[in-house]
Amino acid sequence: MKKYILIIKLYFLVGVLFAQNRSYTYTNLLNPFVYNPALAGEYENIYTVFNARTMVNGVEGMPQSYNFGIHSPLKNAGIGAKVLSVSSGVFQTINAEAVYSKMVKLNSENLISFGLSLGFVQTNIQTNLLNGQVSLKDETLVSNDLNKLFLSSGAGVNYRFRKSIELGVSFPMLVTGIKPLNPAFISNFNWNIGLDSEKRWKLKPNINYYYFENSPELADLLLGFSWNDAMMLQGGYRTNGTTIASVGFNFKSFEVKYAYYHHTNGLMSLAPAQNELAVAFQINKPKPANKYRKEVTSDKIIQDEIDKINERLNGIINIEKTNPGMVNVKKEIGKLSNDLDKILKKYDINNAEQLNKIKSLQNSIDLLIAKYSN
User: 268-291 as b/e, with b when 16 or more CB fall inside 10 Å?
Assistant: First the structure.
């Protein structure tokens, strides 16, 4: 009888702790939207992702995590939703939250997003996993102490400099149940360093820090490489004695990523490793036709087009000097003016030298137009 009571009390204790501590879910690498609501709407299209994390040949009843997220951009904002399911032994937690983010563009290079999430957490016991030592008829197993519905909410902020540097801080369990404020937080730093002029090859250092009340503090030190944003390789170390290797492929509207966590030290006795998988889809939204939509491209491509305009202008001037009347100068100059306008409308030009050259070309073209119009 005492053993039976002890088991019930243990269930109650673990159930309460499990409801308040979901660090296993929030230490994933492949779906940061799970813990930072400020990332809602970060893509141009509707983005959906399924993420799973399980132990490899571990002790029976070790944690398993599954989550699903969807979010979409709005005008200077983002909305979304996420559902998380975590099971550990006979205990299961399901968390569902709606998400909203607000984006503030400080200037052309700096963007900061603020996010909030709000929903509920449901804890319950999976009675089908109980062994014969516990009577399924006992009302304790279906009591409100072990099967509860909690209010949950989170918050986060994310800063981006161009598309190179990203810094985020999130509080994924800001309010859970009767606990008013949970100090658990996650911070991350990412840096995309272009290795060539076209920035097809990138070096990607990444640092993550995790703080949870009922778990040891953790940090990730990671280094990745990517090619053309289509293939990614990453490796590193987590301070709980875990080495990490991951690979990812991006096929425009479809992404698949895989991470392998190899445990050392004390974790080895529980499970030698973990698998994490993420599959994502981008659902393209219809965009209004806009022939003047500006493209962001390399300085070299823009410079080539400016140089071609300059060569054509010099050619027209030289022909007119050596062979007057051979070409219709007024007509050709008009074409050059239109082509120069197209460059300005097509590209987002920030290079001061290129802008000055375009201004100089436009002045020369305007003078010739005025000359041949008289």
Answer: eeebebbebebebebeeeeeeeee
